[in-house]
Amino acid sequence: MSETIALSQTRPSRPHVLGKLAAGAVIGLILFFLILPTLIVIPISFNSAPYIEFPPSGLTLKWYSEFFSDPDWMAAMLFSLRIAFFTTISATIIGTLAAIALVRGDLPGKSLVLGLALSPLIVPHIIMAIALYLFFAPLRLTGNFFGFLLAHTMLTIPYVVIAVSASLQRFDPVLEMAALNCGANRGRAFFEIVLPHITPGVVTGAVFAFVSSFDEATVAFFISGIEGKTITRKLFEDIDFNLTPVIAVVSTIIVAISIILMGAIRLAQNRTSTSQLGETAGAIQL
Amino acid sequence: MSSLDVSSVNPAPAPRFARLFVVTGTSGRYPPLLTAVLLLPLLLLLFFSFLYPVGRMLVGSLFDPGFTLDNYLRMFNEPLYLKVLLRTLWIAFATTVGAFVLGYPVAFAMARAGSRLTLLIAACVLIPLWTSVLVRSYAWIVLLQRKGVLNDILVGTGIVEQPLKLIYTEGAVIVAMTHVMLPFMVLPIYAALRTIPKELPQAAANLGAGTFTTFARIILPLSLPGVFAGALMTFILALGFYVTPALLGGPQTLMMATLIGQQTTIMLDWPFAGALATVLLVVTLVLTFMFRRVLATSRGFANV
Is this prediction's ipTM beyond 0.90? Predict the structure, then answer.
């Protein structure tokens, strides 16, 4: 109220209010454009009609039971979860070690290594997909768990490196030196002093790694096999050939997993430190 | 005797092995060998999953079995492939413009609104970003297909008589890609807008500038680094995008990424696919290196 009064002293009030309303409407429409295609799969997954219909005419859980009783979908889901789980472990360990070296270490060519480690964020996934496909196909590694582990660890490691680097930049090296001076060896100083301080970054990186491995579609499309198929590959095929409401169910589950995990990490981040985002950005020097 | 003298000045020299691994300089930096050991798993991973496969692909595109540039020349000699290249640039450009036009107002509102409204807008930007691109492309199929949501509404309200052909068109690809890329545009612009001191627009207003003048001469110029970062990020990502054009585009909207996929899995012309992928990679890397300072300020990464 007071804001309107203050402004109305310099400008005539009615055009200002109208302008504000118009601006609000435009922003609202753009936000609608952003959010509608993201969430529309949810009501469709509960729709009773066997074709796509919006708004839904009736509610049912039929498609959910169809999804959970379909052995092909279940196999793909478990394969994806297994890949995402082990990718998270390997990316978190390798990425954390690398982030420590990159932030705290002295080595010529360090920035080159950082650029290389972050390059999966920029290099189109189709290039990695083709290169890995041409590499794996002759070795019969398509559809293979270890092939996926290798590919997804590489694709998700930038998130771990970025998140852990941000945490490390807030960590005072004097604490670690004090531990070393007091007689702790490197390992003990790491596990008892450094690691507890950078845990938020490590957890953030791990969650990002899990979600991006589970959601990853392009590389998974090319390096899947007839046997080893991720949920995204099966989704891709079914969207092209077999557009049933079960696809909306799968989409809803994928969306729910991402939003719950990322939302949780976001809330935790806001609680621990509001400046995390800015510092995460500062850690990036491509 | 002399060793005693030395140790009174410096601490006893540690054994060579320990010096390389344990001793930290006064700044708390890790010595080079320890750094290298910590980086070793990453380097091995990057070698086997990235450098070696991409290198192999590059070599495969150049030798048949002797050295040849045929696969590269073909791209520029055959009008079809040249058309795909130009179309890719056009769609990436249109997506970037679309994301800017829609993204700037959102970033502006997010920077200006009260904390609660900012949270709401941030949720609308971040939730799509966290959602699988595959799911969002499927949602666009649901919206745009012949018996889709949009056609239902258009026919139901009598705006059109027959359902329109919306899907498998260039327009569908551009709209859906704009939606996918929008958060990458909003976040860097928002970050840039937030760093503008509140006093600057106030000072401009005090000096008699209207809302529009303040925006055009103070806010817009100061937010340009964010705009460049967002636009560049959007353009680079759009150039190599696979999922959305593969699902929403038809044969008439083949892009670089979809052409590479087609050559690999359907035509089985692996050397040519490798050549196309190499060109795409070079374009991406050149853009990244040319503008790496701009990209470093792109806070979009932090939220991916």
Answer: no
